[in-house]
Every structure is written in C-alpha cells, then in structure tokens.
Amino acid sequence: MGPDPGGRWAVSAAPRAVAPAVDARANAAAGLAAVLLGASVVAVRVAVRDVPPFSLAVLRFGLGGLLLALALLALAPGRLRVARRSLPLLALLGAIFFAAFPVTFNTGLRFTEASRGALMLATMPIWSAMLGRAVGERLGGRQLAGVGLSVAGIGLAFAEPGWAGGGEALVGDGLLLLTGLLGAVYGLLAKRALAVDAPATVTSYAMLSGTLLLLPWALLEGLVPTLGRLDGRLLAVVAFLAAPGGAVAFLLWTWSLSRLTPTRVAVYVNLNPIVAALLGVLLLGERRNWLFVLGFAAVVGGVLLVNWPGRARRPR
C-alpha cells in the first residue's frame, strides 16, 4: 500500500503466483527420441541375425554421425568447428554412449531375457537422480514418485512368473544395470558439453568418436565381408537405424538434454521397451497380457509426474 502520484493511498495488488512453465518442445523431443529408439530395438532384432553386433554398431553410428556432420556442413558449417579443449569431453561422451553403452547392452541381452533387460535399463532415471543430487539437481517428492512409478511400470509390463535364471542371467542383469548407469553418466556430462557447443555438434562428434573406438573390433568381427552380404532388406534396416533411429533420435535426445535436467530426460528411456513391445505385437506377432497394459499406463504416468510443472510459487 502507498500513495499514488495524486497523494491518494491505494492498495497494491498482491503478486501473482508464477507457475514454472513446461518446455513442451523439449519434452516432445525426448518422447519422440524414445519412440524412435524403441522402434530401433525391433530393427536391431532383425538386423543382428545377419550382421554381427560390433559391425552393426559401426554402421549405425558411423553413418548416423556422418549424416549429422554433412547436415552441419551444408546448413551451419561453423558448428563443425570446436575448441581443442572441448575434444576430450566429446571423445569421452562417444566412448560412453556410442561405444560402451551398445556393447554392454548387446552383450547383456545375450545372457538374460529381454524383459529383465528392460527392467534393468529402466534404472537409468534412478542413476540419473542419484548422480544429479551430487551436482545440485534437486527432485521433489512428486518427481521421485514418478521415477519409481515408471520403473514399477516396466516391471509390470514385462513380468514373467516362474522365471528361473542362473549365474549367466545375473551377469546379464549386471551388464544392463551398467548400461543404465552409462546412460545416466552421458546425460550428466552432456550438460557440460552443451554449455559450450550446439546439440548437433555434440551428437555428431560423440557418434563419430564412438564409431572409431568400435571400428577395430568390427573389422576383427568381419565387417568387410558383412558389407558384401547386405541385401535390400538389410540395407533398409541399416538405413533406418542410421537415420531416424540414429542421427535423428540421438540428436533429439541430446537437444532435450540442453533444455531439461538429465533425470527429466532419462525417465523417457522407459518408453523404449514399451514401444519395442508394441511394435513386436504389431509387426512380429508377439503376444502380451493385461499386465503389459497396466505397466504401460504406469510408465506414461511416471513420465508425466516427473515432467509436469510443480505448484505455482509467489515471487518474493
């Protein structure tokens, strides 16, 4: 309350509550990336029957990285130039997400069921929340509940009564837990790189550096003779994995990391196995029970809880 210019007293309006805005574009990008990566799981299932895993990773990430680099060269050539001091971090991102991540993921799935693998990978937002606390990211009770609900949804969707696994299955579970941790570490470190370079720059450099690390193993595995065996069907699958499932998906994922916290992005990874399972039903004739529908609803609900805006707060 105070005098107005005419000397009269007026009651000041109370400050309006300000609610945090939802970054709809960043959430849409993370969601679309999750859908594309889920579809890529089905494509990998098809391709890996004829293309060895290291060779497939080199083709996917190598071609995807080249596509991004060529797009930058044509549309924004200045973004191909990075400071020398940025190169070690970009190489580390490539080693984590485009070399170690696919190796632990593919190897883990050799020892355990895909359903258990999906549950282990669903721990990524939990790892992200734990690592985020160490660097100052704070999640409220609603967001933590959303992470838990999303992970529980994966457990419901892929519940398999009567599972009897041995030591090999535990090795696979451990590798896929490590895969989730690697994804969380990438999200945390990518935030540092994105403070300096554009998302397309970070993604292309990371993809290409990861490819270079995998290339010697792919050559030993038989990359060259594999190229001669690629028919039209396999070429189409590889093209999908390199473009929509590679360059586009990982660019969207990294761009969303430039706008959202790592945990808010990581929770979208739980849509990957759901999308893969739905496509398996539609395209491969796989069958799912009512628990899958319940788990799907829980995953979506968890994602919404994590990324929905909090209560409006009054400015001080």
Can you put this structure into words, describing what you see?
With 316 residues, the protein is mostly helical. It has one domain. A two-stranded antiparallel sheet has the order 1-2. Strand 1 and strand 2 form a beta hairpin. Helix 8 packs antiparallel against helix 10. The longest helix is centred in the middle third of the chain and has 28 residues.
List the helices and strands and how they pair.
Elements: E1 2-3, E2 9-10, H1 24-47, H2 53-75, H3 87-111, H4 114-121, H5 124-134, H6 141-157, H7 167-194, H8 199-221, H9 223-228, H10 232-257, H11 262-266, H12 271-284, H13 290-307
Helix pairs in contact: 1-10, 1-12, 2-3, 2-8, 2-10, 3-7, 3-8, 4-6, 4-7, 5-7, 6-13, 8-10
Number of helices: 13
Number of domains: 1
How many individual β-strands? 2
Strand content: under 5%
**Helix coverage percent of residues?**
over 70%
Low-confidence stretches are 8-19, 312-316
Strand order of the largest sheet: 1-2
Report the radius of gyration as a whole number of Å. 22 Å
Overall body shape: globular
Distance between the termini: 16 Å
Main structural class:
mainly alpha
Mean pLDDT: 80
Helix and strand element order: EEHHHHHHHHHHHHH
Oligomeric form: single chain
Largest sheet descriptor: 2 strands, antiparallel
Can you give keywords for this protein?
316 residues; mainly alpha; 2 strands; two-stranded antiparallel sheet
Quick recap:
By secondary structure, the chain is mainly α. It has helices at residues 24-47, 53-75, 87-111, 114-121, 124-134, 141-157, 167-194, 199-221, 223-228, 232-257, 262-266, 271-284, 290-307; strands at residues 2-3, 9-10.
